[in-house]
Amino acid sequence: MVEKKVNLLMRQLPAMEKILKDERSRPFLELLDRDGLKIICTEVLNDFRSSILGGDIDSFDEAVIYQSIGKRVSALTSPSLRTVVNATGVVVHTNLGRSCLAPEAVESVLAVASHYNTLEYDIEAGARGQRNSHVESLLCRLTGAEAAVVVNNNASAVLLCLAVFSAGRSAIVSRGELVEIGGSFRIPDIMTFSGTRLSEVGTTNRTHLRDYENALDEDTAMIMKVHPSNFRVVGFHKEVSREELSTLSRKSGVIFMEDLGSGVLIGTENFGLGGEPSVAQCLQAGVDLVTFSGDKLLGGPQIGAIVGSHELIDKLRTYPLLRALRCDKMTLAAMEATLRLYLSGDWKHIPTLSMLSCPLEQLRAKADNLAGKLAKICPEGTVSVVEEEDVVGGGAFPATGLKGYAVRVCVDQESAGTQKEKLRKGPVPVIAGARDDALILHVRTLLDGDEDLIVQAFSDMLEV
Ligand SMILES: *Cc1c(COP(=O)(O)O)cnc(C)c1O
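Above: inputs. Below: predicted complex with pyridoxal-5'-phosphate.
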């Protein structure tokens, strides 16, 4: 009896050829070629066969098969990496792609990506050139360094420096700086991976100069300082200044390196934040090698920059691992264009920096404007402007919130959590916050055109 039923259902499954010829497959064939669609049909038919054999279904309509195929076709053919609206107020949001590029950088990427270019070609000499040269002199000018080299990201910059200068030997790091920066980048692990022995000194909250002095021996290759990035030790705390560590490393003939994390090129007082040294200040304080990211507070593409003396940078340049970590032409184009904006004083064209330095009145005006638009489509009394804290992100200034504004929307037909999810799953995902059963849309991180996308997302959600 059961067997009969199974056989019957199996026979009801349409043949592949029939599916491919069916009218209902026509839209699929506009998105996928015949072979691609065949693979999906096979998967869907196999799924149905196992469900029938497993007794999970005892009847079906052919339409369901076309629906299943449609779902798979659409999942396969829709872009996965796509743009979103960042209404979180976190400026350097690692999950949302960190920094957005300045228009000048985007233009440069487009040109270089679509044309032959001087990536490794020296126009003057008519001969082979250096891909690093496009950003090196700019980095030197902006940081005061003698030489610079760039790699894929800051994690690879740190790895490269350790591999070149301390493999087989040891590096001294304060216990207060043995950090993990989100997920897999942990200083002790990267040390091990590079073949460097970690010599930990001091305690979590206090490290003295004598701790470094006592740890120095013939095995020591470097003293390394690491930016604590995403956390702060407050209260009974002491770290040793760069100047003191520089004097000590010089006296002992070891290298003094700093992983600065989020490299800032201009004084942070420009955007009302204090307490973070610029790359230039670290070098002036006597650090031999500074590494930093391109896509955090610098506001450029994903890159790792290493700046320092000719002697040290030349050693990095000739190390074989560099080839494995080198940057792509699009990245170099974006980096060069971004650095030029610093040189011309137009750093406010860089979205990350313009968001961070946006005056409070302007944020208020932006919030009022968005609230006005949303009020037109939301039930009366549900939209208001509120003061909110924004966040720098990217591991910089973890303890300093930025005073900002947000639009609060409290429509009680569904929970704020459900509404947040609906905004997220719309055609252009809107990533917002939710608190006390209201949606919170921070305006600092909105780009031109985002307001209209938000209004559209709300009208879809509220079906108005
Ligand atoms: C962010 C960060 C890194 C990793 O940089 P990526 O550019 O993401 O590879 C390393 N060290 C510190 C201190 C950081 O803040």
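The radius of gyration is 28 Å.
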